[in-house]
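The passage that follows is intended for readers who have already worked through the single-chain material. We present the inputs for a multi-component assembly, then the predicted structure in tokenized form, and finally a short commentary. You are encouraged to pause after the input and sketch how you expect the pieces to fit together before reading on.
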Amino acid sequence: MKVGFEGRERKRESDQAPKPIFGEDGGGGGAIVAAMITTPKLPDRQPTMTVEGAAADQEIISWFEGLAENAGMVQTQTLRRIIELNHRTEYLQKWLGRDLRVQDLDPAALESLFSSSVPLASHADHEPYIQRIADGDTSPLLTQEPITMLSLRVFPVRAGGRILEFIYSSKQFQTKGGLTVGTATTHYFASEEFKTKQKSTKSFTCSPYEVIAGEDYKQSTYCHLLLGLAFSDQVEIIASTFAYSIVQAFIAFEELWEELCEDLREGTLSTKLTSPEMRRAVMDCLTPNASLASKIEKKCRQLEESNWSNLIPNLWPNAKYIYSIMTGSMQPYLKKLRHYAGDLALVCADYGSTESWIGVNLEPSDAPERVTFTVIPTFSYFEFIPLYTRKERDHSTSAVTDDFAEREPLPLSQVKVGQQYEVVLTTFTGLYRYRLGDVVEVAGFYKGAPKLTFICRRKLILTVNIDKNTERDLQIVVEKGSRLLRQTRAELVDFTSHADLAVHPGHYVIFWEVKGEAEDSVLNACSREMDAAFADRGYVVSRKTGSIGPLELRIVESGTFRRILEYYIDHGAAMSQFKTPRCTTNQVLLGILDRCTVRRFRSTAYG
Ligand code: AMP
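Having made your guess, compare it with the prediction:
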């Protein structure tokens, strides 16, 4: 098991320029961070991949049923194991003392001692320890076992046939203390585990490792597509870590298909591929195939006529489903994904993070809009901070943050259906009561294990004065606005936003990249619609009194968001984990957006 974490607060909201050494923001490149022990003691017995076929499936199901049945008790034991393993670390001794005798306490007493003595923490609280580990301090700081690698995430991939996987490694580097740092997916793709998974499921990704590890994501995408076409009859699954990568790849395909067919016909490789390792590895898999190339070419000509609708089932007729994270910040790409996928099933990948894998999707046929993730109680010790919107807030309760009011964290066994929570993790890899920053809602239970709906990142993203809007609020507003766009022949490619406080009164700016023609009157209506759609009381009141100015919709030229992606990739972000920042105060990004703005519209929603 490989789990890690990264500099989340700096990372996702992209308020700061990417760090030159430790990377990025948007895509799991990470400011320094993440602990990953290579030889941890695993929580209780895990199902193995050594048993064949149905027996292996049965073993996994029985293991999971047992866990779900006793989720609360399993959590208490999981915490006990974490403390047993790590109570002599500097971090835990600071809070639990040096004299703790774990064996003298029963698990429930230990659980209550832990939550009353160890404070809730953010990345900033752990960072000094991680920095020391990166610099080579080998004393037990966060974990008893030595940390041998710093990482960001592992997402297990399901079995299937041949998989056309749009996956990408990012650059790895060494810390002063000699540890390898890279995104978690980067470590995973380079690991034995990734190879074993392919062997034991007898299902191989189309691209050799050299393509996944290529330094230029555009070249890697070209090769993924080329090999995907070469193996088109064998491909059963189309996959990526986050749905963004699949959508990007097929947008690129619309421009590359002729060149790809040429290479397929001749068994050659475009000169745009400059990496000798990648060229060699791809050439080893490729043979000239004129008939396949002609067949694909013919289909592409027809697809071009229909604006590439149903592209995937047409070119990969044996594909059974698409597998990726499609929820949360990936939801805005669903429409485009469905456009390419036609009726093909969209299977939502599980819910996890660099810090810890959290929940699995037990109903693969559920649409992304309905999917829930059942918490696996052995992966970490989970706590849940009840969240209330300000309106519902009970004034007798304690802490109030900017966006939500919150109450004391609860253990997994005490969460309630319909309630929203922030997830808190205590992991085997040295994070203690770590606030993940994700808001989830309990949709139900599978036996004793809660089923979570992912709601949004907790952090407020748009605020001028008393108004407060989250990523989710923005997503709903943009969805409403872009519906008007769809009545024309234009579509929304991507979006971001900024609260402009440099002018008075401050106001929201929403940047759209649009494909196709949209008239001024339509875009004016879109800006009005979005302005009126922010339901937050603080916003509505401020707009009515004029203390927040009219929302501004700015249209940026085609390719702007690709430039933003490239900016992050250049600074160490991983394509596989990239998430477009939905709100930014990053000056470099704002510079790009400014230079690329081609049209501006001011809402007239409030007169
Ligand atoms: P990373 O920062 O790359 O480690 O990504 C982890 C984050 O991605 C989580 O904290 C969530 O915010 C988001 N995420 C992961 N899995 C899902 C999912 N299935 N649905 C929605 N968001 C997810």
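Commentary: The two ends are 57 Å apart (CA to CA). The pocket of adenosine monophosphate is lined by residues 28, 152-153, 325, 327-328, 351-354, 436, 438, 454, 457, 577 (CB under 6 Å). How closely did your sketch match?
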